[in-house]
């Protein structure tokens, strides 16, 4: 009997524990709505990412570590637990979950790096509804008033728990243009800061003017309450943001129907539907910048002009002519100097805030956690996974060699092939680890750095607003640039030969830019493919051919999906010429230009670019491994692109796994026996039959050893792929020519610490001097690494009254001098001085403010 | 579900005609049964096609996703910036057209739905539009087959063992009603109210995070050991927690259910009579309790086997196990109709075949049952 009671008690306890577990508090971000006037939150204080140890010099070549093992982990919380337990070394994903951040921050075993490439915005449907129902957001003043309805500081503090920056405009707060136009931005931020009463007043005035009236506290039109259809994304913090904003709208007197949708469910509303149908009013949009965008001038066209996005919603946009003209000029870099560009921003920025087809709320600050004893260069926008030099910089503390376990939310998502394979970030990260390139983007500024290149010359026609920052690029201006007659400008797929400029333009051809890249002498002796084959000019020529051939109907590998992209490229491409094969020197002629000469060389790593490195859109590729794919596609057994594979109902070519391997293996035997040279009419000039035979023989050995065809030249070799087990391993490439410490300086972004000090009380009409101290890791910031230090002066009512530049008075020390004239303009009361430090070595500006009182 | 073959005795007698051979009776029954099951399968699969496509609404979602994707590509491609708006729009529209054609959106949904049905019923599973298998294949067959071994390994092992353990424990306890172990079972039965993944989270916390004796998840160590024996050991190590989670969530409740089921039979008069005759416990269980309940046990076992096909998406997610459940979940999330329908049609066929086979198995294990003829009179 006693036992019966015990058993019953035990059962009860189990049942109770289950109930209690089910009732445990959720860790999701709060969705509570704020009061009408929330308390002013504390200033945003996103903790600085973990400082990383300085890297020692070494004679080791290639990667610091011997092995990298990739696995899959969907949950950031589980990943943090595994990091803490020592079962994982780095979670290479940009996590934005505040509770996980708290876990990582509080653990002495863990470190992290930050990235800020994602933003959240509210998008409005500005169409006039065909049904005759009133759409409040068709009114420009009401859209503009929505700025005042969003308390961005509240969102940052309460929803993101500090893991975000308030964002007001189309300009990202972490990219160079924000720092460049910080004075304009700060003035706009002051103007559009949270002000519920103002939003209410504007909405009331405009709604009344539009014929609406409030009935029982609810806005009604033609005796029917106005119900706003709010499409709220559910996957991330856009849900609580949507709930918050819906609450604010309800406080204004609108009925709001919350339509909770994931990405695919939301698309039919904002992407596909006719805005005039009125199926939705507003949407929680989210945008991602995978890398630092050094020129955001085109963003006004992208987000505020019909040409920006080819969907019905954008076609309703009707920006004022002056705004549209400025946006168009900025999009096409149609200005002559940087001052003219600023004038265009002065026009476009205020208009973008007023038109408010979309208003931004935050720039999310995500983080990538890792164990404390591991360092790696992370991209300030794309995080660890978005870094192009993670492979070269990944290092275990005080150690050369070792094994690192990397996890991501996905792995081997889609087939890998350089021409049309996977573009998932989860696949891109290991691909970047095994590949190399002519240039790599600076992870902290977005400027291109020479990787395999030795130097470059960029020549542009006079009057173009191109500048250069780094000394590896020589920027020249010429009145006219003529394209040589022997430059290749197009491809004849039938004869498999390039068409020269002389053939196509007998009367000659001029262009706007010439980019000449110089590879170092002896490169073809030192750089080898992972199968041991030396890099050759043929690999570069193959990369030129593959721009054109798949888009030509006469080609054996014609892919109609490739045509639009190639045609787009050819609309500005004006020719390429191999000036010298050893050392390799290539000239590229183009009508398109960018503001930074360095980025013109790299084209933001987008293929094709003037380096012509055999780094294709979806990975690096040797001519001989691609040749197998060309054979397989020619024979209709595989296809490089998913579109063509779908159309032909054949497998999408994968060089690393699956049914493709057997087919490619068969063609390797064929290619070897025939010493096959693809596009022989052209490549035959660059490849001997002996070289072809050697390449296929080495590839066969490589395939036998690694069971895949992913042959690259990077610091790691793709060793083994285990698709079902969801893991792959990279091993250090012992033949890699660069020293391991080549990019050691990118171990940590030098985000400046700024202090501003001065008199607390200033008498009106007297000169006032304030000191700005700029440092990093408690050491003065080198003035050579600072582009500029600006100041903004706000009066007691928060209006911007002055801005200017601080003067350097010492290493890391600057002074702001407010003249007697300036201080005499200040009324008695509290004023705010803000210093903005724009470093040259990171894209993120640093701010400091100081309040002082003026007396008469 | 298939209809029962048990008929009232009188009906069975009436339906029996003079001169009808056993073969003809079985053949007639088989034909009718096959046709019925086939039609049921067709209807079930077509309903799945309609539901998976939301009656055609998925087309709108796909169109919108394609338009969004293409515009995102164009927005970030510097080559398109040099084009005029007309040229840019023209290329955008061409890219959209190609992608829509690739996924068949150039045809009305109802036309495609008939094609989906025909292909599905002929087991021509075809090609996925948005998904690839782990190794990169787009063939629906490969997408599912690659995940079948891990699924079978985890769920077949655990479910088959659990099934037999549950039945044996229940059988034993049914004859020991109210004793110590019986009360333990009754006390633990509520553990079955929580799913396996729920226990999985706690088990991971205890054995992986705190004690660090077992892995967090995955099917095998990374990188997988090259030696087959080490690979197998690693597999077992990774299998431990998910199997334990399934066991905790299943075994006690299952055993409790079976024990209650057997309890009814074990108190039948003929069992008591046999017991009074002095038959052994083993004999009682095997001949007097187990035998009359065999059809039910076999049905449950067969249905347990075929439900393995669907995997357990959440449990697989918690343990990062590469099973069919996760594949199916991903297919639903991506509106990958081909995989959803492929999975469903295979399940439907397996179910139909199982139901069909069970009719014959009943006749074999239970002498009272006769195929196409109901229950025999004794």
Structure notes:
The complex is a heterodimer of chains A (856) and B (378). With 856 residues, chain A is of the alpha+beta class. Among the domains of chain A are: 117-291 and 356-363, Roll (Dipeptide-binding Protein, domain 3); 425-707 and 719-725, no CATH class; 750-855, Immunoglobulin-like. Helices cover 30% and strands 26% of the residues of chain A. Chain A has 27 helices and 41 strands. Chain A has a 6-stranded mixed β-sheet. A 5-stranded mixed β-sheet of chain A has the order 2-14-1-31-30, sandwiched between helices. In chain A, strands 18-17-23-25-24 form a 5-stranded mixed β-sheet. The radius of gyration of chain A is 29 Å and the shape is globular. Chain B is mainly alpha-helical and 378 residues long. Chain B has 2 domains: 1-147 and 328-378, no CATH class; 149-322, no CATH class. In chain B, 71% of the residues lie in helices and 1% in strands. Chain B has 16 helices and 2 strands. Chain B has a two-stranded antiparallel sheet. In chain B, a hairpin with a 3-residue loop joins strand 1 (369-370) and strand 2. In chain B, helix 2 packs antiparallel against helix 6 (109-121). In chain B, 37% of the residues are buried. Chains A and B meet through helix 1, strand 1, helix 2, helix 10 and helix 20 of A and helix 3, helix 4, helix 5, helix 9 and helix 10 of B.
| Strand coverage percent of chain A | 25-35%
* Structural class computed from helices and strand pairing of chain A: alpha+beta
Biggest protein-protein interface? A-B, 84 and 81 residues
Radius of gyration of chain A: 29 Å
Rg value of chain B: 27 Å
What average pLDDT do the residues of chain B reach? 85
The outline of chain B comes out as flat
Question: Which sequence of strands runs across the widest sheet of chain B?
Answer: 1-2
Strand tally of chain A, please?
41
Number of helices of chain B: 16
Helical stretch tally of chain A: 27
Number of strands of chain B: 2
How many discrete domains of chain B? Answer: 2
Choose one word for the global shape of chain A.
Answer: globular
What's the arrangement of strands in the largest beta sheet of chain A?
A: 4-11-3-10-8-9
| Residue windows where pLDDT falls under 50 for at least 5 positions of chain B | 1-8
> In terms of per-residue confidence, which ranges of chain A show pLDDT below 50 for 5 or more consecutive residues?
17-47
Largest sheet of chain A, if any? 6 strands, mixed
